[in-house]
Structure formats: C-alpha cells, structure tokens
Amino acid sequence: MSVTSQAGPTGADGSSSHAASGPIPPESERSDAAHNDRPENRLAVRLAFLVAGFGVACWAPLVPFARHRLAIDEGALGALLLCLGLGSVSAMVMAGMISARYGTKALIVASGLGMALVLPLLSVLSTPLTLGVALAVFGACLGSLDVAMNVNAVEVEKQSRRPLMSGFHALYSVGGFAGAGFMTLLLSLDFEPLHATLLGGVLMAAAMLMAWPYLLITASASHGPLFVAPRGIVLLLAALAGVTFLVEGAVLDWSALLMTSTNLVSTAHGGLGFMLFSVAMTVGRFTGDALVSRLGDRTTLIAGGLLGALGVAVVILAPVAALAAVGFVMVGLGASNLVPVLFRRAGQQSAMPPAFAVAAVTTTGYAGVLLGPALIGFIAQGVGLSTAFWLLAGLLCLVPVSAGRVARAP
C-alpha cells in the first residue's frame, strides 16, 4: 500500500505550515499518516528514542568487564568497539531503503527488540570474534532504529503541525542517562553482568512492545529505486549534521584532556566538561520545541551555531574552571537543537525521498561521531589541542552561514 505525505507551503523562515494539498484518497487507501494528530503516535516514537539511548548506554559500563573477560589490550578493544560503529553505519544505508519501500513501523520494532535480545550476549561472549560479531549486530540494530525512528518522528511532527523533534531527541539523552545509571547501579550492587543486562533487555523489550500498536504507519512504495544518492539540499544537511555530531564526539573524547592539560581541573574532575555539556543539551532539547516554534528554523540554526561556536571559544580561552564550565554549557545549549532542525528539514525537502534523506543525514552524523575524535587527535598532534578546538568553533560557524539556504529549501 503506497501513501504519500505532502508538506504544505513554506513560510518566510523556511518552516512548513504542513497544509494538506491534492485530492483526498479513498478511505481504503489511507494509512495512519493521513489521520490527525494522535498523542499515542507521539508516545510511541518517544519510547523508540528512549530505548535507543538506553540500549547503547547499557553497553558502556560493560566495556571494562569485556576487556577483563577476553584478556585483551587497548588496541584489540578499540578494534572491537569499531565493530559497533561499522555495524551502525552499514545498517543505516539499508534502513533508508527499507523505510522507503516498506515503511518504518516494522523496522522500529524489529530493531528495538533486536537490541534487547543482543544486549545480554555482550556480557557473556568470551572470544574477540564472537563479541565482535555481536557488537556489529547490536550496532546494526541501533543504526536501523536510529534511521527508522527519525523518519517516523518527522511524519508524526507533520501530523502534529508543530515542532516536536527536539523533544524526541531529548528522550534519547534521557535514555542514555537512565541506561548508564541503571547498569552502574546494578553492577555496583554486585549483580552479575548477565543478570543486569537481562533486566535491561526486558525493560527495552517491554517498551518496544508497548509502542508497537501505536507507531505511525509511514509512507511506503511498492516500486521505485532501492537507493537514491544524496543530492541538492540533502548534501548540505548531511554535512551540517556531520559537523554538529563531530563537535559532540570531540567534546566527549577530548574535553577532559583539554581541561586537565591546561590545569583548570584535576584528573579526577576531567569529566566535568562533558557532564555539563550533556545536561545543557538535554535541557535545551526539552525546551527546544517551544523555542523553535517561536523563532523558526532559520533563527534557531543561526543562534544555536553562534552560541555553540562562542562556547567553544570560551572553553579554549577560559583562565579558570568556572568560566570553562560556562563555555561547555553554552556549547550544549547551542548544539542542542541543531540536529533536530536538520532532521526536520531532511524530512520536508523535495530533492529526494524523505526516508533516503534522513538516512543520509543520520549516516553522515554518525560518521562525524566516529571519525571526528580521531581527526581532532591527528590535528592536535601537529598543532596542539587548543588549536584543534578552534577548528571546531570554525566548523560550527558553517551552521549559521548556511541557515538561510537550509530554511529556503523546498
């Protein structure tokens, strides 16, 4: 059954009014996407974002256990961790094809349940080969879920006719906090890793089964291309997503070293910067929908990009830890709503099918997280870490520079 969702005319700032146009198909040819705003659709996609964040965060506390169980060095561990990223990126391309051809509902449920089933295996597999394969499958489920839930979220937002993407992405952050906290608590109470992951998997599966009946049935096509190369405005959206995710990955992996190497904080407090960045990003996303509704996409991109770039500059130049902390909060608040806006525009553009566009933006963004920290490391080795962070500030300035083009795109 093929259903096409149409976006309405574009306003002065590039935001869509989502007015319906064209003839109304017979009732038998309509999907849930043709219905009015339904709260249960919003709840279902929020649960998907929550499960994605929760699942990947559950793995983080298991890394030391995996290294001890396999008796491997840092190099081998790094190769295993790369399996997760490669599995995610590879699956994202396929997820775009599947979402365009068959819709997103089944893919969301299958991917979420897949993560829940594989998670316990990550706590018991005892050879690098088997754990590497499991991590690749786990990453593939995560990547597929990431693409499908964002495509679904774009359609839910269109039906609601108001910004919702920031709130959806905030639930991913909440899931991350909850997953890391849940696993850390159970492990600190001397739970066996297998038992802890089994409980986590049960919670994830229950959430996906709860969401299943209420997920929006998105557009599907029984014919058409299985792959569409990114083009037009989608190339710009993907590049900006890569920049934004690159900044997030750099703050995650390098902020502690930047703070400690400049003697702003002790080694024990090196994680303060990323913690403040994460809290600020979550707060920014929870308040972002109301902000975007008031300001529009163009102004949000300009303000967010400039605030983030200024925050990076404050972190680099800060003479004391308190001022650096303010800088990390500025970066988190500035970056918080950039990605949700970019995903929204990917779903609204007309250069290529939305499912392929969202997949391209997601894949490039995730590549930024994977490759960004390594790039910063190479640059830092040659010119210093502070100079490498100036590069991040410069890259973030590309967002406000491109905001007008993004908002004008049909």
UniProtKB/TrEMBL annotation:
Residues 1-36 are annotated as: Disordered. It holds the Pfam family MFS_1. The chain crosses the membrane at residues 43-63, 75-94, 106-125, 131-149, 170-189, 195-216, 228-247, 267-287, 299-318, 324-343, 355-376, 388-407. Residues 12-22 have a biased composition (Low complexity). It is found in: Membrane. Its main location: membrane. InterPro entries: MFS (IPR011701), MFS_dom (IPR020846), MFS_trans_sf (IPR036259), MFS_Transporter (IPR051788). Keywords: Membrane, Transmembrane, Transmembrane helix. It is a multi-pass membrane protein. Residues 234-410 form the Major facilitator superfamily (MFS) profile domain. Residues 27-36 have a biased composition (Basic and acidic residues). This is MFS family arabinose efflux permease.
